[in-house]
Amino acid sequence: MKLLDKKIYLASKSPRRRELLRQVGVEFELLSLRSDPARGADVSEDERPGESPLDYVARVAREKGAFALNVLHLRRQPLRPVLSADTTVTIDGEILGKPADRDEAAAMLERLSGRTHQVLTSVALHHKDIAEQVTQVSNVRFATLSPATIKAYCATPEPYDKAGAYGIQGLAALFIEHIEGSHSGIMGLPVFETAQLLRKAGLQLL
User: Which residues form the domain of 22?
Assistant: First the structure.
């Protein structure tokens, strides 16, 4: 099965995911989900009691895609594959979300300093009768960060819209001693695994 219309819907606000899809030649239309606290989020990203980081990231990615698919049906928009994803950082079995302020960002970086943590990115694809999902896990080791380094990094805009308070594609690349896994997965969209999902939906890649 090949798609006559090779464009997909991307249910994500992440500029990193957009960049990675463009890098491999995937055309997409954005389906942004609401996250305004005053009006309520379209998909809750709150942890559930007893939920593991793996279960959490998979659930959120899956629910984002299912919600976006329902929106398409309600709007009667052309049906195309819907790609959704969620990324989280975990250490000691605890999820580190996006920091609310500079103090929280500094506390997260202090915790990651000199240690190995995990970055989990789950990708879900919905299209007609297809509902596929894959979760990619990478191990990331940080160098030991001095208080001055943490303070300087937290004075930049980088930490505040990213799980774990850092982005591997930016200045935080200076912190990373070693990774095992997927560089693009740590950015927010594992390209290899995503391509496999898109091919199942009929998208022709290289």
Answer: 8-200
pLDDT, position 39: 46
| pLDDT for residue 52 | 96
Give bridge partners of residue 88 from the DSSP assignment: 120
The answer to whether residue 1 sits within a structural domain is no
Say how many Å lie between the first and final Cα of the chain, rounded. 16
**46 is known as an active-site residue:** no
Q: What is the CATH number of the domain that holds 118?
A: 3.90.950.10
pTM for the model: 0.91
- 36, 42, 46, 86: which one is catalytic? 86
Provide CB contacts within 8 A for 118, sequence distance 6+: 53, 89, 90, 91, 137, 138, 139, 140
If one counts the domains in the chain, the total is: 1
Q: Average pLDDT, stretch 42-64?
A: 92
Q: Position of tokens 């609310």?
A: 100
pLDDT in tens, 65-102: 999 988 888 888 888 999 999 999 999 999 999 999 99
Examine residue 163 and state whether it is found in any structural domain, yes or no: yes
String of DSSP letters for 120-182? EEEEEEEETTEEEEEEEEEEEEEPPPPHHHHHHHHTSSGGGGSGGG--TTTGGGGGEEEEES-
Question: Domain for residue 180, yes or no?
Answer: yes
